[in-house]
From TrEMBL:
SUPFAM superfamilies: LDH C-terminal domain-like, NAD(P)-binding Rossmann-fold domains
One Pfam family, short name: Glyco_hydro_4C
Cofactor names: NAD(+)
Protein name: 6-phospho-beta-glucosidase
Length: 450
């Protein structure tokens, strides 16, 4: 099989390639095409992957392309993982947000809307290119904000585009570990009950061999606070909810605390990553063993992940167990195998709702458990958002829909409605100022808004 990775010069590409190297099953991916607009990063990434594949028999071949259509031709699967505006764009979103007293994180609130407004026209063009040159390909979307980006691409590709995120599977893995249960979250013995939108969902059940073990965890405060989300939200709040929240809900539940920590931090997350990545790409381009350079840089990224959130909760440094990747690359491999070889699997994915959740319409992309087979991903009947979360889900879906309307029609009014309706933006005046600053700072990317 051929896999095309759009945004293949991105930092997380070696995680995917490592999963491909581990896959020795018949029908595995044998050819990887990396597509990116930055030829220099493509060349460096090719060096990293060659270092990674050293000594591995029959490693998938790697080609690099700056022309998307060229790289897409003949693809069986396409991974979309692009970042319009790059890390400097993320840092600018954070700066704009802080200057108006709101959180600017890249997928939540103002930052998520600004990032989506830059990204949606680009992914829509990509979707049309895929439909033209690789119409049989299945698209797996990694691009953030994953939910609204997947929904935008689905207007062109229908159900042949599926979004994935590692947050839900990482949450479930840490919950199992807290209970000393030695089962993989992708094992057939484990069933996750999870529902919501991307970066806005709750784990409400954790079945192992048919028994829900989540109540066991919720009854033990010490076990709750033994892992990252438990420390972040605190045992008392998690027990009050009766469910395990996705880590990104911390921005909603502790907005004032996080904003204060952001304002006191010497650097925003985006600014830190800009500086770190500049050094990384320079060093990796000439390193004798570029994979080691990448591994060291990745460790530094993981150690500092959501640092201001942890500071606001008084958590201190991350535990070694929390530094393990959530495993989105393994989810992607399982998804590809399920579709290509009809190997049924149950995964948490971003797909069209099709009636699975009662509070959003059929075409709305939601994040829920799905069964996967040769015909694609199918939402599991019975997925449910907790009562306390239903209002938030419908509000954020409205925000996503207005953001999508702005991107599809060039509507400044829709963009303003999205910003003013978001729970993390508390004033129409602030929403208007945020939009004006974004249009000024990203004049080329947002010139379509009228």
């Amino acid at each position: 099989m051929k896999l095309t990775m759009v945004g293949g010069g991105g930092f997380r590409t070696p995680l995917v390639y490592a999963a491909l190297l581990r896959d020795r099953e018949p029908g595995r991916v044998t050819s990887v095409a990396l597509v990116d607009t930055d030829a220099g990063r493509l060349a460096t990434m090719a060096r990293i992957l060659a270092d990674q594949a050293a000594g591995v028999a029959d490693a998938p071949t790697v080609t690099t392309h700056t022309d998307a259509a060229e790289g897409l031709r003949g693809a069986d699967f396409v991974f979309s993982a692009i970042r319009v505006g790059g890390l400097p764009g993320r840092a600018t979103d954070e700066r704009i947000g802080q200057s108006h007293g709101v959180i600017g994180q890249e997928t939540v609130g103002f930052g998520g809307i600004s990032y989506a407004l830059r990204t949606l026209p680009v992914v829509l063009e990509l979707a049309h290119t895929i439909a033209r040159v690789a119409p049989q390909a299945w698209v797996i979307n990694f691009t953030n904000p994953a939910g609204v980006v997947t929904e935008a691409m689905s207007t062109v590709l229908g159900e042949r585009v599926i979004g994935i995120c590692d947050s839900p599977i990482g949450l479930a893995r840490r919950a199992l570990s807290a209970l000393d249960i030695d089962e993989s979250v992708t094992s057939p013995a484990v069933e996750l009950e999870y529902a919501g939108l991307n970066h806005l969902g709750w784990l409400t059940g954790l079945r192992v061999h048919g028994r829900d073990v989540l109540p066991d965890l919720l009854s033990q405060p010490d076990r709750i606070e033994s892992f990252e989300e438990g420390k972040l939200f605190g045992a008392e709040w998690i027990q009050t909810l009766g469910a395990l929240p996705n880590e990104y809900l911390h921005y909603y539940s502790f907005r004032r605390d996080v904003l204060q920590a952001d304002q006191y931090a010497p650097l925003t997350r985006g600014r830190y990553l800009v500086d770190q990545q500049q050094s990384f790409w320079t060093d990796a381009a000439t390193a004798a063993h570029p994979l080691r350079t990448w591994e060291q840089c990745r460790h530094e990224r993981e150690v500092t992940y959501m640092a201001t959130n942890r500071d606001s909760a008084g958590m201190g440094e991350r535990d070694d167990a929390d530094l393990v990747s959530g495993g989105y690359e393994n989810v992607a491999i399982a998804l590809m195998r399920g579709i290509a070889h009809d190997q049924q699997a149950r995964l948490i994915l971003n797909v069209r709702n099709n009636g699975a959740l009662p509070d959003v319409d059929a075409d709305a992309v939601v994040e829920i458990p799905c069964t996967v087979d040769a015909k694609g991903a199918h939402p599991v009947v019975g997925a449910a958002v907790p009562d306390f979360g239903r209002g938030l889900v419908t509000t954020i879906k409205y925000v996503e829909r207005q953001t999508l309307e702005a991107a599809l029609g060039g509507s400044r009014s829709a963009a303003l409605r999205a910003l003013a309706s978001h729970p993390l933006i508390d004033s129409v005046r602030v929403a208007r100022a945020l939009l004006d600053d974004a249009r000024s700072s990203f004049a080329d990317d947002l010139s379509y808004l009228r």
